[in-house]
Amino acid sequence: MPFPTLNTYLAHLSDPDRPASSVWLDSAGRAQGKYFNCTITSAFQPIRALGSSRIVAYEGLARSASAGDAGLSLWKLLDHAASDDESIELDRLCRMLHAINFFRQDEAGQSDLYLNVHDRLLSAVSSNHGHAFKRILDALDLPLGRIVLQLPTTTPQQGWLLNYVADNYRRNGFRLALNAASLAQALAMVSEQRPHAIKLDARYLSGGVSLEPLVDAAQAAGVRLIFKRVETAPAVAAAADIHGLPLYAQGYFLDQPQAGLVSDAALAA
Asked: To the nearest whole number, what is the mean pLDDT of the chain?
């Protein structure tokens, strides 16, 4: 493992004589945590460069703990959290678990890790978004430069809030990925926020609208375009036909989320 401080922390978590805490390791070495009566762990879905099998990043997803990789999605728990403080606590716990479970695996290589920020946190955190998570990464000596924080879709009326939160995260050293609800919003984000990446629904690959203005603007600004929810072969083929910019895709047609990262042997296959 290339992260000795993390290795020391994992050894501490596996010590049977240590005091009880909110984070522990299961029999497979995966970090788990507890939110109310639910045990949470991580699954990872690759983000692939279209036209090749190359994995450039993984998105960390909160799952209920299970013997295999069949845990249920728990992100909606934040929608029902009793208070803003509890939603903040759960969000930070998930990001910590994902970082631990990602970087403990040798297969992480030089891939980036995309981590979601729930929409409740945009307004729930009063100031200095990202500072608490940066402290966790620094304490474990994990590379903040390989973390991309993925902000939720916002309405035009929330533009000021998005700018405020994005500025805070950048001040703490994070790169950002933004979810766009439309092509027009994506185009505005390229010029106004200039994130590391913009994620768009794969339905925009089905035709009827031109992606050329967005592709050209993203290429000029150095912004990655990632098509999410890629569920069919035609969607992959349509994205591969768009020239002029390296495009990226993520979805169940390409990969099922799982606890383990893709090995070199599996990638070659």
From this structure: 85
